[in-house]
Specification:
Organism: Methylocystis hirsuta
GO biological process, one term: Gram-negative-bacterium-type cell wall biogenesis
Radius of gyration: 20 Å
Strand order of the largest sheet: 3-2-1-4-5
Order of helices and strands: HHHHEHHEHEHEHEH
Keywords: Membrane, Transmembrane, Transmembrane helix
Oligomer: single chain
Protein name: YdcF family protein
Amino acid sequence: MFFLPSKIIGFFLAPVHFFIFLAVIGATLLFTRWKTWGRALSIASALALLLMAFGPLAGLLASPLEARFPPPPHDMPAPDGIIVLGGAIDERLSASRNRPTVVDAAERLTAPISLKRKYPSARLVFTGGSSAPRGSTYSEADAVQRFWRDLGLDQGDVLYERRSRNTYENAIFTRDLLLPKPGERWLLVTSAIHMPRAVGAFRQAGFDVIAYPVDYRTSGDDGLEFPRFATKALGLVEFAAHEWAGLVAQRLFGKSDALFPTP
């Protein structure tokens, strides 16, 4: 019930989409008796898109999220298992091309390979079904299984959770699959910008995890960051805004015990 409305609302309220729609409305109003409103909406939308594309907004939104959970030390004790969240596969292209198609969050899939080789006795679990609004017969887990197999990862003890459609379902279904015992150490691998929301969901599900952030999008340096490419900046604004909105929604709907989870 929560999944489909969140997809629809997220589509229309995504910052870039929102201001494009607003600009279209403003341009339309220029041909009516509400020209003043049309001019104001058009100018405001253009300025907002310029700020997102060429200003420091992307970094300002993303940096606090990425800095929230630092990576564990390199000499940490060996974990009992490694949980990898979906979000690195384009399901539609993977299905149509019949091969795994990785998006720009590829480190979500490459980092676990290194971790598995470093900690061979740790159990490896991937969680991710289909995020398509109407569902799909082809899950992200299917593509990841093939991707890891093609890279030579031993599939003997790898588990795949194929039902989850969002972060909270990742937590619930993975908990039910693994039935973690008290005292076990489980690493959670996902994009650094997504880690606060992911940890909040797992904690609410009663599954204590150790954050292992990857796929950083900001430098972590002090000061404002201005983008080199407008398309990347717009994408980062969308990603960060989605995460902030997700944190608020999770808290409001009881899917996290904190608005901004702490380490």
